[in-house]
Design goal:
17% strand; globular; binds orotidine-5'-monophosphate; decarboxylase; lyase; pyrimidine biosynthesis; Orotidine-5'-phosphate decarboxylase; OMPdecase_AS
Length: 274
């Protein structure tokens, strides 16, 4: 999916919600366990219940890889099931020498046909560039992450600024707002305004609302740009909103709350017709 299509999707759906399919076999409702592929059965129900409310799904590959071959099959079925026209993210946080990075890019862009992959930039330009070489595909590079450990390296001073600022400035030169996004954690509200000034045009994937306590209101107020420029991810707060027979309806209610809040912020900020 290209940038214009993503921007149009956000305007049409009045939503910049990304539903995170961090599907944990130990957390899904028990009645699904008799299904031949319980992970897919869960995801299918969540997708059916939320597809009109979100613009993206993020599949965190860790939850699938830990199940071995069965997990990869669940992942494949899930990606194939996501309706075309919805942005798909493989949250794999890959990064390796160029020769290997190319294989990772092929895995997620060609074999599994995702629109985007999360990429760890620590190994530098040759580890990120292979993800930028595919038409209408995206690298989503870790900028400032939502977790406590972001202080350990990302928030360390390097010269005039923080290390994460150096990462943002340097990485921006490798790609364009048409093939590069940044992960900026929803819990980093104190830094968000400055980050948006530094990176005015790129989309941000913003995880950390819901279970990690980030505020959708604060993020939207400081980080939205003229194209919206945000994909706000919620995983546990949506997919585990309920745990009974009607878990999908509970997920829908949670997603709807986010979407309605987003529609209000879009209207306020961008004067988009509702
Ligand atoms: O790249 C990510 O998606 C990511 C980056 C980050 O800084 N923080 C973060 O939580 N994530 C991911 O976003 C999701 C957050 O899940 P919830 O806290 O359940 O909404 C998980 O899949 C995390 O792996």
């Amino acid at each position: 999916m290209n940038r214009q299509e993503l921007v149009n999707l956000i305007r049409e759906k009045q939503s910049y919600l990304c539903v995170g399919l961090d599907t944990d076999i130990h957390k899904i409702p028990k009645h699904l366990l008799s299904h031949p592929d319980p992970i897919f059965a869960f995801n299918k129900a969540i997708i059916d219940a939320t597809r009109d409310l979100c613009v993206a799904y993020k599949i965190n590959t860790a939850f699938y890889e830990c199940m071995g071959i069965r997990g990869w099959e669940s992942l494949q079925r899930t990606v194939d099931y996501i309706p075309s026209g919805i942005f798909t993210i493989a949250d794999a946080k890959r990064g390796d020498i160029g020769n290997t990075a190319t294989q990772y890019a092929k895995t997620f862009f060609e074999t599994y046909r995702f629109d985007a992959v999360t990429v760890a930039p620590y190994m530098g330009k040759d580890s990120v560039e292979p993800f930028l070489a595919f038409s209408e595909k995206w690298a989503i590079v870790l900028g400032l992450t939502s977790n406590e450990g972001s202080k350990d390296f990302q928030m360390q001073r390097v010269g005039e600024g923080y290390l994460y600022e150096k990462v943002l400035k340097t990485t921006m030169e490798w790609g364009t707002p048409d093939n590069l996004m940044f992960v900026i954690g929803a819990t980093q509200t104190a830094q968000l305004g400055e980050i948006r000034k530094l990176v005015p045009h790129h989309f941000f994937l913003v995880p950390g609302v819901g279970a990690q306590g980030g505020s959708l209101k604060d993020i939207s107020a400081v980080a939205m740009n003229a194209d919206c420029g945000l994909l706000v991810n919620a995983s546990r707060a949506v997919i585990y909103a309920g745990n009974g027979e009607d878990f999908a309806q509970d997920a829908r209610r949670a997603a709807q709350e986010y979407q309605q809040e987003m529609a209000a912020y879009l209207a306020e900020k961008l004067a988009v017709k509702q």
